[in-house]
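Appendix B. Extra example for self-study. Work through it before the problem class; the solution is given directly after the inputs so you can check yourself.
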Amino acid sequence: MNERMQSRATLERELQSALTNQEFELYYQPIVGLKENKITSFEALLRWRHPTRGMISPAEFIPIAEETGFIVPLGEWVLRQACTEAASWPEEISVAVNVSSVQLTSSNLANTVIGAIASAGLQGDRLIIEVTESVFLENTAANLGSLKCLHELGVRFAMDDFGTGYSSLGYLLSFPFSKIKIDRSFISDLADKMESRAVVRAVVDLARSLKMQVVAEGVETNAQLEQLRRLGCGEMQGYLFSPARPAAEIDRLLAPQHKQLVKLPVSPSQPLAVARHSKAAARRRV
Ligand code: C2E
Ligand code: MG
Ligand code: MG
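Solution. Structure tokens for the complete assembly:
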């Protein structure tokens, strides 16, 4: 117990310097629309590249950051970094950022978000804020109300890990959510457990009535994907498509669908023809 307490105290101390030493990095995991078979957004997932311990999982350090209040400056860095990086992506691709309930209790989150989108030059509707139910348990109506102004700027909200906590349906009605993310625990045994399929089907139906989208988290197999399609789930996220990857790999992940989106010809001679055509068009405009 002593050892555990010491290692926690060390981690707590090191967290403070990690931000100034630029040891944090955002990885991005694609979220894929099942109808269009295209990436619609990326979820920003925080990584800590520790100088001696290597990559540390957020599951290990986020709870400490929340307890110490360090999540406030760290969360602000995440929001600013994610918005800045997303501003360079194609316009139809959004970014989802996880926000802890502590950020809402102990800071003016709405101002932080407005600052982040403004300085990045990102359209508000390209940002999705992911919150878990703890936001409702630990915040006052006034705190939550302050977030609603972001909704007017087009910022969207997703209910993360749905199904794990109290899953009060009242929360879904009391806040303008655009998405419900079904927790991985319901997806893992989707192919062989009738009960999990019943839960997913119920959430899909509920979301449809409430005009919300549904994202299935932690999709790892084709059998799960098949079931999700059959149940009418709109989007998926999971290792089956891709784990979270560094920002530098976003272009590579988007490349195949981009070719489709702008209907680029596959033959190597044709892109040149497109370029010549646009140059000629530009000359005509002059
Ligand atoms: P989350 O928001 O529910 O994120 C999804 C987690 O599931 C990520 O873990 C992701 O890597 C993992 N995952 C995705 N697909 C699969 C799959 O097919 N199979 C399995 N087994 N796992 C999958 P990660 O990156 O370790 O993050 C864990 C949690 O840490 C996140 O859960 C989120 O609650 C928290 N977190 C991460 N980044 C941030 C952040 O910037 N701010 C805050 N407040 N929390 C964060
Ligand atoms: Mg999330
Ligand atoms: Mg989740």
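Self-check: Confidence is low (pLDDT under 50) at residues 261-286. If your reasoning did not lead you there, revisit section 3.
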